[in-house]
Design a protein that fits this description.
- The protein has 215 residues and is mostly helical.
- 62% of the residues lie in helices and 0% in strands.
- The chain is elongated, with a radius of gyration of 21 Å.
Length: 215
């Protein structure tokens, strides 16, 4: 079981929807019964929020599983915007991604179950590209600013690689027992991906020498 059980209450329409609490309750339910075997009514009973209200806020059950990505993207954006310009690009990016990993103890309690769930459930795994798109675009735009000679496709490829490495580090952290701060696991992983702008571009390179066969 993930975390402690929330106090039971009659399902209704809350004035403010606590997305963290909704996610924690949903993950707890899914860890017990599986994702495919639960309904909106099951989620309503687990969260204490009516199924009608949940459907008004979330277009699908899978969306609930990805609620943590939006605040992580905001933390990433804020860290990139506040970084000192004099630092190497690799150090700024690595530091910003580490900052985007929440230090909230409540989130750390549910993170291992969340990571294992979305990596094991095909329906949730299929939603990963869409869920992470804003995160990847945020990082790709930063690469474009720092590496103006880099094509847009390269910036996006770099951002995608960093996202994949970050998720791999978090999943490894969860599978190893979720000991320590997950941000530390992310930093160790990302040090393998330090980006350095090439000194030359393909346009600057000399043309390959022609051989007898090519003449």
């Amino acid at each position: 079981m993930i975390g402690s059980a929330p106090p039971s209450r009659r399902p209704g329409r809350p004035s403010v929807l606590d997305s963290k609490a909704v996610t924690a309750s949903a993950l707890r339910l899914w860890s017990e019964r599986g994702f495919a075997g639960t309904s909106w009514n099951d989620l309503a009973q687990a969260t204490g929020i009516s199924a009608r209200t949940l459907l008004r806020h979330y277009s699908s059950r899978a969306e609930i599983a990805w609620l943590g990505v939006a605040p992580a993207t905001e933390r990433l954006r804020a860290a990139l915007d506040g970084a000192a310009d004099g630092l190497p690009t690799a150090a700024i990016v690595r530091g910003a991604i580490v900052e985007s990993v929440s230090h909230d103890p409540r989130l750390h309690e549910v993170a291992p179950g969340w990571l294992r769930l979305i990596s094991a459930e095909p329906e949730l795994a299929a939603g990963a590209p869409r869920a992470y798109q804003p995160w990847i675009e945020t990082l790709a735009r930063y690469f474009a600013l720092r590496l103006p000679a880099a094509p847009a496709a390269i910036c996006r490829a770099l951002a995608t690689a960093y996202q994949a490495a970050t998720f791999a580090a978090l999943l490894e952290w969860a599978d190893a027992g979720a000991n320590g701060d997950p941000a530390d696991a992310v930093e160790r992983m990302l040090r393998w991906l330090d980006v350095h702008a090439p000194l030359t571009t393909s346009a600057d390179l000399p043309a390959p020498a022609r051989t007898e066969e090519s003449r």
